[in-house]
Each structure stands twice: as C-alpha cells, then as structure tokens.
Design goal:
single chain, 9-stranded antiparallel sheet, two-stranded antiparallel ribbon, 4 helices, globular
Length: 264
C-alpha cells in the first residue's frame, strides 16, 4: 500500500500523522503478540500430548490435560466380547484425547489422540517409541512400510467412515501396540469414491485382514483411497491389552457421538 505522506500531513498535520503511525504500530504489535501467544499455546499443548503414556494414572492425565470432558464407566452387554472399561475424554481446541482402563483406580491401559484441526501438527515418533516417523494429520498412511502392519480395518457406512492400521514392534516398541487411524470425529476427509455409494448405503461393513465381503470394493478403488488417506489419530495400547479397549465398531479413540456438543 502506497501512502502519500504529503497529503496526510496536509489534512491531519504533523501531530495527527504521528498519532496515526503510533496507532498503526500498536495494532501491528498487538497482532504479532496475538500470533505469538497462539503459537505458544500450540507448542505447550503439543508438549503435553507427548508426555502421555500407558501405565500412568488417570489423575496424572488430569494433571497434564486438565478437567476431562467425559468420565464414564462402560459395561459390555451380556455375551459381548468387548471388555468393561472406564474412559476419560479430554477436549482442547486442537485435539480430542481418550484414555481407557479397567477402572478409574487403575492405570491407563490405552489412549488415543485425535487431531481436530489442520492448524495443529503432532509428531508421532516419541509416542511410538521411535518406531514410526511422521506428523499427523499431514502424514500419508501409504508412506509407512506395509511390512510393519500387523492388522487393518476399514469401516464404511452411509455417513460414517473409518480406517485403522495396527503395528507391533516387540521389545523396541515396549511391547505396546500402536494404531494409526482416520477417525471421522477429527480433521480431514476420507476420499470415498462414487463407486462406493451403493455399498455404503447399506449396513456397516468391516473389512479386516484376511476377510472378504460379497460387495467388497475393488482393489483399484481401495488402492486409490489408501494412497490419499491421512490418519488424524494415534493410539497407544499397553502390553497384552486388547485393542477393543480403545475402539468401538466405528472409531479408534473418541466416537463422533461422544463429542457432538463440543463447540467447533
């Protein structure tokens, strides 16, 4: 923007021009300070998330993340293979965090972090015991070596989508299981093809490794989805803990229904 200072001085005089410059400087400084505070808040929250681990208490999660949005004991239905579990859900402007265990008096058995905005990036190398490099939600899941994968799941419904991959590294990974997932409560979109509309209008379908489905989408369709898919969720499950403690039949981590009243 070009400013004709001769005209400014003509209309407002030297005191007015000085006042205008000072006002402009104050506005610029305020905006710069605001951006600085925003960046610091993100950095602090990133460091908080990187402190989380299995085996610590729920109260320690409270110390790190603050007051949970949800505290809930969820009992499995009679005959169900799903375990009873106690969960706490935390919400920040940047992420949803679900911590799960057998009950509130025991340690956290598993936790999941779901990124809710593309303006927040979380490196996962520390959370995965230095086994997986990348930053979510920008990481393409296809960039991870497929030989590392121990299982995967694709869930698609009329308006619900989810994909997850699990990894296990034994001793180097502290005997924990790690899951990278796309959770439809978080940021991003799942690249669903027009080809899949008929299939997705029916009941929920789950495709797991080694399984088949009568109306399973073609390999070409799935490969196209897989190349573009960016996980927004990282889950860590403690040794000898079943993955179902941190997931339901739709989502890994928080389910969309849990956080429907959280302001966006």
């Amino acid at each position: 923007m070009n400013i004709n200072w001769d005209n400014v001085l003509k209309f407002v005089g030297i005191p007015g021009a000085i006042s205008a410059c000072l006002t402009l400087l104050i506005i610029v400084a305020g905006r710069t300070a605001g951006v600085g505070r925003w960046l610091r808040r993100k950095a602090i929250h990133r460091e908080q998330l990187l402190q989380l681990s299995c085996g610590i208490s729920f109260s320690r999660f409270d110390d790190i993340l603050g007051v949970p949005y949800i505290k809930s004991t969820q009992n499995s239905l009679p005959g169900s293979e799903l375990p009873d579990r106690y969960i706490q859900v935390y919400c920040s402007p940047y992420a949803y965090i679900l911590a799960a265990g057998s009950n509130k008096d025991e340690s956290v058995h598993a936790f999941a972090i779901t990124i809710r905005t593309k303006k927040f990036r979380l490196p996962i190398i520390k959370l995965t015991a230095s086994q997986i490099e990348g930053v979510i939600p920008s990481l393409r899941i296809s960039k991870i070596e497929s030989a590392l994968r121990t299982g995967n799941r694709l869930v698609i419904g009329a308006n619900r989508f989810g994909y997850a991959e699990s990894y296990y590294f034994g001793n180097p990974g502290f005997y924990q299981t790690y899951v990278l997932a796309y959770n439809d409560a978080g940021v991003g979109v799942m690249p669903i093809s027009e080809e899949f509309h008929d299939f997705s209008s029916g009941p929920f379908a789950t495709l797991e490794e080694g399984s088949s489905h009568a109306s399973e989408p073609s390999g070409i369709w799935f490969n196209a989805l897989y190349r573009e898919l960016r996980p927004n969720t990282i889950a860590v499950i403690g040794p000898q803990i079943d993955l179902s403690i941190i997931a339901n039949y739709l989502s890994v981590g928080v389910d969309r229904s849990m956080i429907r009243h959280v302001p966006h």
